[in-house]
Hints:
It is built from 14 helices and 9 strands. It has 314 residues and is an alpha/beta fold. The chain is globular. This is Nucleoside hydrolase. InterPro entries: Inosine/uridine_hydrolase_dom (IPR001910), IUNH (IPR023186), Ribo_hydro-like (IPR036452).
Amino acid sequence: MTHKIILDTDPGIDDAMAIFFAFQHPDIEVLGLTTVYGNIPVAMAARNALTLCDVAGRQDIPVTKGVAMPWVGPESEYAHFVHGDDGFGNINYPPSTRELDSRDSAQFIVDKARQHPGEITLVAIGPLGNIAMALRLEPDLPKLVKGISIMGGAAFVPGNVTPVAEANIWNDAHAADIVFSADWEVKMFGLDVTLFAPTDPEFVNILAAKNPTLGGFVQQASQFYIDFYSQNRDEKVCFFHDAFPLAQLVAPELFEFTRGNIRISTDDLNRGQTIVAPPGTTASPLWTEAPFVQAATGVKHDELFQLFIDTYAL
Ligand code: BDR
Ligand code: CA
């Protein structure tokens, strides 16, 4: 079965690895890359997405530029310290000269959802401003898509930006609140699974050996990212957060979920916290009347990384 997806992204090194996985997998059809600010400013995110299409020889895939700012508050601080000045670990890769699709990311999402009702899975691997904007443009979006999977949040584990918040949700907590509150059950792949599945840096060498073009790009770009993640550790590690929701589409048997009611904190202190209450854990209507989420809480690590390798090898 082929999964039609729109990949909403802020590339970003783990975004690049995830995008190539999606391009490579025969059961995934990428209808477009919609970009958003996050790791880097949105203009750079859009250009980087075009560049990744060039690397992969996929100039047929439309790329759009979307929101540049959080729903509320000032322009974000970017994560250049994780992803480098260029978003690709400072490898000086020549930027694409291809044109963007003229539509805004949110409009593109709405247009495609109307064009393929019930067929598209939205996969969001950056802050959620484009999806929130698409919900404003088309309140029936939840009925028009097949589903939504996001990389973001931390249900039962600490955050990576603050003690309670993961970066994608922290970056645009108000947008995340809109998205999680819409009439769909979000599949959330947060730090519960992504940060608990570190990989040895040898992984990127294997990707490069299996696929010198795509894996080679990931290997080069990842060196800066590996150094960031390996600070204050004895061994080198790497985390490919953004590929998790894509892997689940094609290999659902590798994941376990916990269902619960979810609230997103938007106050300053707890900004971006994703608080999940499984049924029976609270009688508070603040949670029992809140929308449900499927939060990934378990993953078969070895099989997951073998899936990435096998898919890059195709
Ligand atoms: C998320 O934040 C970004 O740095 C990554 O690309 C990923 O989407 C992990 O917290
Ligand atoms: Ca990302």
